[in-house]
Design a protein that fits this description.
Elements (H helix, E strand, L loop, with lengths): L7 H10 L22 H40 L5 E7 L5 E7 L9 H11 L22 H8 L7 H7 L3 E3 L6 H6 L13 E3 L12 H14 L2 H17 L5
Parallel strand pairs: 3-4
Antiparallel strand pairs: 1-2
Helix pairs in contact: 2-4, 2-5
Length: 251
């Protein structure tokens, strides 16, 4: 194949045919750092920052809440028989199971069929958050002890999960830790929530807590995974403190 070469005569002919226009100068392209691909080192640095925040908050939280935990322990022992801590298997990051720790707020041996049926109806779209003033949790759940209602109102029952955070099983901010049967029935699009560790609080916590439907909670979990950054975590932590003080959306 013969390769054409452009001589000065050819270039003059091209300029004459294009009206003497000159080829525009090349412009440098500036890459927006926000749209640049995230490298492995960037991702590792981001994970380290989140982990440092988790450990700091967990250590401070356990130290500051120790008097509250002591009072809660006495209230649990006095108002109902059974263990102080409630242990339950949940689904964590990448679908790995772990044991979540909570203060016991229910009577031992309670039947969870009504709550399970409620969640399944919501996942099927049979109920929405407008019904019964929010429906993610059962209203007037008979399984909850007198002390448990107070502990749940201010999420004091969740404080032992700070130990889960120190173990690396949970984060301060993240999706709600799911039960195994819930994980089995959710839609594929909602499984993206398992890309990060579950959290003590999250977008769902500051957007209505238990007044949201299960589908709304799952959508907020996925939104958090897509938007996750350190500033968002700090904002959610501050918002959570305000929500807990007011007792908004508690069940």
């Amino acid at each position: 194949m013969k390769i054409a070469s452009f001589t000065p005569r050819h270039r003059q002919r091209i300029r004459a045919q294009t009206g003497g226009a000159h080829r525009p100068a090349r412009r440098s392209v500036t890459v927006n750092p926000a749209s640049a691909p995230v490298t492995g080192s960037d991702r590792s640095a981001r994970l380290r920052r989140h982990r440092v925040l988790d450990v700091l908050v967990a250590v401070c939280g356990l130290a500051l809440s120790s008097p509250v935990l002591a009072v809660a322990a006495v209230a649990i022992r006095v108002t109902s028989p059974g263990p102080l801590l409630f242990r339950q298997e949940r689904v964590g990051r990448q679908g790995r199971p772990f044991t979540v720790l909570k203060l016991r707020t229910m009577y031992v041996g309670g039947d969870d069929r009504a709550h399970r049926e409620l969640c399944l109806r919501q996942l099927e779209g049979a109920e929405d958050a407008g019904a019964a003033d929010g429906i993610y949790k059962l209203d007037r759940d008979a399984r909850i002890t007198p002390a448990g209602r107070w502990l749940r109102r201010f999420s004091i029952d969740e404080l032992p999960q700070l130990v889960n955070v120190l173990r690396g099983e949970m984060a301060i901010v993240g999706p709600r830790p799911m039960l195994a049967w819930e994980w089995d029935v959710i839609a594929e699009r909602h499984r993206r929530r398992a890309a990060v560790a579950p959290g003590l609080t999250g977008l769902w916590q500051v957007s209505g807590r238990n007044r949201l439907s299960m589908l709304q909670m799952l959508d907020l979990d996925v939104e958090y995974v897509e938007r996750r950054n350190l500033m968002l975590d700090l904002w959610i932590i501050l918002r959570t403190a305000l929500v807990l003080v007011r007792g908004d959306g508690a069940r």
